[in-house]
Structure formats: C-alpha cells, structure tokens
Amino acid sequence: MLSPAGIPAVAPGPRNGGETEPVKPGDIVMLHESEDGESDATVEFACDEEPHMLKPPFAPGYASLHLGQQLTDLNRGPQPFWEPGPGQGDYEIVRKLGWGQEASVWLARRLENSSQTSFVAIKVLTSAVTRAIGRKESFELPALFAIDDGDMNHPGRPYCTLLLDLFIYSDMHGLHYCLVFEPLSLSLDKYIEAERSEGRDFGFSMEGLRNIVRQVLLAVSYAHAIGFVHTDIKSNNIFIDVGLWNEAIAKYLAEHPSRTYPARHEPNISSDPIITVMSEPLPPFNLPDRNRLRLKLGDFGVGALSFVPFVTT
Description:
The protein is α+β, with helices and mostly antiparallel strands. Helices cover 19% and strands 23% of the residues. A hairpin with a 2-residue loop joins β9 and β10.
C-alpha cells in the first residue's frame, strides 16, 4: 500500500472495517511495485518494529542503525549550527530505547577519552521529518535552541529536556537530524503500564499527583517564557529522570545485553539480511517512592510559537 513521503507506511486495520492505521510491530506492509509499467507485484513484509528497511514513499525513512555502530566525524553542516560542549563528540550505539512516528531513540556511549564511561540518548529523526525541518514546518529545533538559550535561573528549566549535541546522519534514506539528550527512563504512561502488569495495586497519592502536576506546570511555564507552547502534553511525553547514573547504566547493560530480532530475508526489499534492534528502555534506577518521581517534559516537535507575527502588504 503506497504511502506518501512523510506518512508512515500503513497496513489494513483488521478491527476497524478496513481503515488504515500507522505501522505497529507485527503489521504486514504491502509494497506495490511495477516493473513493466503494466502489472503490479505485491510484496508482504511483517515489521518487527519501525519499518527502517523501507525507503520513502513506503515509509518516512527511519535510520537503520545497529548495535556497536560508531558515529564519528560527525556532520554539523557547512556552517555549524551547533557547537558541542566539553566532552561531546563521537558516539557508539549500545541500545535502542524506543521509536515513534517521527524518530527512533538510541542509547549511546561517548567515545571521548575519559576515565569514566558516560552515556547519552540520541533521537534520530526520520528523513521525512528532517526535510520538514528544512522547510521550516517543524518547531522542534527552534524550541530546543530557545530552551538551551533561555533563563538559566527559571525554575522550570530543570524539568525540560535539554539539547546536548546536534549533528546530521546520512544513510540510504537521506539525511537525519540527530538530537542528543541526557538518558531518560520510561515515559510516565509506560511506567504506569509496567507497574500494573506486575499485578501491583498501583496508584498515586494526592501528594504524588501534585508532584507530577507541579513539575509539568513549571516546564510549561518555562516554554511559555521563551515563546513556545507545547501542544501535546500527555503522559507518554513526560519522562522519568534517572539522573546521572552512568555506572548504573553500564552495570545494567552488562547484566541485560541489548538484543536484536532474528535476521529476516526478503530480497524484494533488501539484498542484505534485515536486522532490527529491539526497543528496550532503561529502568528507573534508584527510583524513589512513586509519589516523589523526578520528571522531564519532552518531545517539543509538537510545539508551536506562542506569537506568530502578522504581516501585511
């Protein structure tokens, strides 16, 4: 089923009367290709996770990264738009944390010379979203730049995800903006889901709810102070802050190695084996009482300028 660039490839939704829905793990993607200009050949492929193996226009162009891949000699553009801070530079992919409609997120180890291992999270945007940023159709980069340049003393700043580094990655799908942040744990909704799946009697006290609302409102206040409105505030855009637990992350990776799905073979899609890395988010290390969670508001790709000048001629 053909899908225009910028929109995820879709598969028939078995529960909604034949309507279409974004690709989810296990969905079957149907590619219609015409070799002779008269007849179509249909290829069916069940995605393990994001359809990184599919080029636009069949998918939005997810970067195909692999475990152990080193990102070096980073492309920062002909006129660097971001000057990395101390200790920033090259990275090695060590885990996949998750993916969504606009990006995949990876845990990476810094490769700078240091006596202590340190980690970052890299949000790799799809090629479609990267092109949208170039057309100024996305506010994510302007919002992140404004957050970085804003009032250091604003009480809401610590509750927003801060951009640490920015570079461009190139692959068969095109260019991908790569946004580097500190590692975060589960989103609030995934944390609640995990707690309930363990059969625990889960709930927040009134104090716990106030704690969540207070941090989110402070983050929103900071966004407003720098001229942006976050238009998609929900529990899966609120993340648990694990703090600077580099030693804990290294220990966790040693005890819980990152995994991939079994290699897939579909010559009509790729001449090479198709290997997809499993999404495995970090646990909330040294988690305090659930009513005292430390949180950060993320995903400013759905932000908007709070003031758009009205231009007349």
